[in-house]
Give the backbone structure.
Amino acid sequence: IIEVEPGVICDDLNDELKKYGYFFPPDPGSSSVATIGGMVANNAGGIQAFKYGVTKQYVMYLDVVLVNGEILSVGSDVLKSVSSYNIKDLFIGSEGTLGVISKIGLRIRPLPKFRKLGLFIFDDIRKLENAAKKIRLGGIIPNLLEFMDKMILRAVRDYLGGIFYDFPDGYVLLAEMDGNNQNHVDDNFTRLFDIIIQYNPIFFRIAKNDIERELLIRARKANLPALSRIKPTTCVEDCTITLTNFSDVIKQIEKIPESINASNLEVAIICHMEGNLHPTFLFNENNAEDREDFEKALDYLYKEIIIPAGGSITGEHGIGKIKTPYMKLSHGEKFIEKMNEIKKIFDPNMILNPGIGKGDTRKIDKTSKKRKLKNQENKILELECMRCGFCVASCPSRKIYNIEAYSPRGRLCILNGLVYGDLKPNQLINDILHTCTLCGLCLEKCPSGVPTYEIFEKAREILHFR
Ligand SMILES: Cc1cc2nc3c(=O)[nH]c(=O)nc-3n(C[C@H](O)[C@H](O)[C@H](O)COP(=O)(O)OP(=O)(O)OC[C@H]3O[C@@H](n4cnc5c(N)ncnc54)[C@H](O)[C@@H]3O)c2cc1C
Ligand code: SF4
Ligand code: SF4
């Protein structure tokens, strides 16, 4: 067991643990920026959840600062205890609505020494579904079992080129076995391979060594950068279903743009094969019609597909504000009232993360849809940032001021408010824009290639002439 503060970054923790031959398994795509506190508050998972589970499985105890300033210690470092209500688990995944986590006791695991990865492409999604079900029924537990749809494969092919040019169109299953004994890993991978091959993939590649593994795994890691080059806005949704109706649900999601008659909207689907889907919508949020189509698409996804299929409206990203409107439909009125009662025990004045539907039943004030650029000259300032946060940690001014507004992402959001007239220029905004050193480190980290420092330079020019 290790003890960490909530602000420790997931990748930094794993770099440190690696020196001792251990690791903390949950690995969200945001692990280079996600904090352990945020991961506990969201109960984050990641691409290895199929075998290693999610953050909850690793949290032994927490200190939580309550709204009145008291510190509550929950959980313990003993492996078995039923001496109280399980209040620790109430805080895990509570999205900051009940208190601020200030200390975390975590279980860690020995780092596996060996792994073997294969990439398989199917022309028929049902064959892939059946292969995945057979793997589960066969008691084989890959550390990684990931799905990518046809659109993602095409985007990755265009983005990465190289060996990926030879990959045929189709649905991808990426599967890996790991362990501490080379022979066991090889044997288990052979069992996995024998199952998958029965379902006639049209193409496969097996990594023969670590270099080939790194190459193949790029097909998965490049999903976000590849997709974010297609349209200005990339919005990754998150929901879970059982594998029983996997293909039907995927087909319905693929058809969303057609079903809601939204010709500018595109959707791609990534899935962790424990049933955690990430339908990813591509559009232009600077365009009012696109935004409306996106909202319709979300309604359709949750109301017409996921909830009727008996799924959950979030598997690992949380409810936030966007999915709060689907809470009642998903859980029913009585359940929501009970959550509200629990919320009020910890936060009677409802001041912690207001508007997040875990416990907050108040109506959300939606931002205006009538967003129109005030001045076409300002087009370069339009938001093409997906708010992933990959640029935040590297920014020198963010490090000094330690406030989101002084980060590249914060500055872009402020500029967006300015060009659409939601904000008015003032001294503080001027300071925030002028404390950017124009070093360009953010651009290096940005998967979408947002020309950040050119934008900030232009913004200063505009402010100067005002
Ligand atoms: C590009 C990208 C990829 C992602 N991929 C995955 C993935 O594969 N799997 C996955 O599970 N998730 C994924 N996520 C979402 C993921 O859950 C978060 O990135 C991460 O766990 C949150 O950590 P954070 O430090 O960024 O928290 P933040 O985003 O800052 O906060 C998340 C929530 O937790 C609350 N919170 C933060 N710290 C505390 C604290 N100390 N006490 C109480 N509440 C707190 C915040 O108020 C907020 O409600 C992804 C996100 C992005 C942007
Ligand atoms: S260009 Fe500005 S915003 Fe980007 S990393 Fe440098 S200081 Fe930060
Ligand atoms: S500018 Fe920053 S937050 Fe925006 S897409 Fe690029 S890396 Fe992500």
Notes: Residues 385-391, 408-409, 412, 442, 445-446, 448, 450, 452 surround iron/sulfur cluster (ligand 3) (CB under 6 Å). The chain has a mean pLDDT of 92. The first helix runs from residue 10 to 18.
